[in-house]
Each structure stands twice: as C-alpha cells, then as structure tokens.
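Posted in: Protein Modeling Q&A

I'm a second-year student putting together a small comparison for a lab meeting, and my supervisor asked me to include a predicted structure for SHSP domain-containing protein. I've never done this before, so apologies if this is the wrong subforum. The sequence is pasted below exactly as I got it from our records. If anyone can share the structure token output, I'd also love a short note on what stands out.
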Amino acid sequence: MRAESLRYYQPLADILETDQALLVTLDMAGVTKDRVEVSLEKNQLTIEGRIDTQRYESLKAVYAEYNIGHYRRTFLLSQEIDREGIQATLNDGVLQLTLPKRAEEQARKVTVH
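Accepted answer (user: helix_wrangler)
Welcome! Here is the predicted structure, written out as tokens:
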C-alpha cells in the first residue's frame, strides 16, 4: 500500500463547550505525534494526520471494519476563540484540542448589589 494511494478520511469528532473553551476530540487511529499537524490560517483550523504506511505494506486485509488512510478535517472558528491559546495533545490515537474563548467572550456572573 503506497502512501500516495491512500485516501484521506474525516476523523470523527466531539465538540464540547465550557464557559472558558471549546474542547474538540478527534479519533485518529494509527497517527503518532510526529505525523499530526494542526494549522490555523485566518479563521480556518485544519487538522491533518498521516499514518505510517510501511506498517501496512506487507499486509492483506482479511476483514476490516475501518478504513486505512490519512486524516484531514477543517473547522471554521468564530471570533470568540483566542487563537494564540489553542493547545493540542495526542494520546493513543485520540487528538484533543482546547480552543479557549477570548476573555471578553467568557461567561461570567454579575453580582447584584
């Protein structure tokens, strides 16, 4: 299986919201930290993960419930996201992004005097 013959798949994602941030979780099985790229251009956040194709070159699938390929997903960010504070971690094929809200956008309580 050659790298250029592999397709790109859109990884499954969950997006949760707290008062301070959006939390994005993406399933990217087979991707390691050195093969994932998170980029931001204007309001477009792009995640790309590439699997190590050598692992699959000598194998023939007998039965497969998921596709083997690279991953790519793009999200459009609103102005409420603090672009400088975005963080990403990858553990066991699960990419987690924290997209903090700008301070002026965070929910807050107003004290009544």
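A couple of things worth pointing out for your meeting: The mean pLDDT is 88. The longest strand covers residues 21-27.
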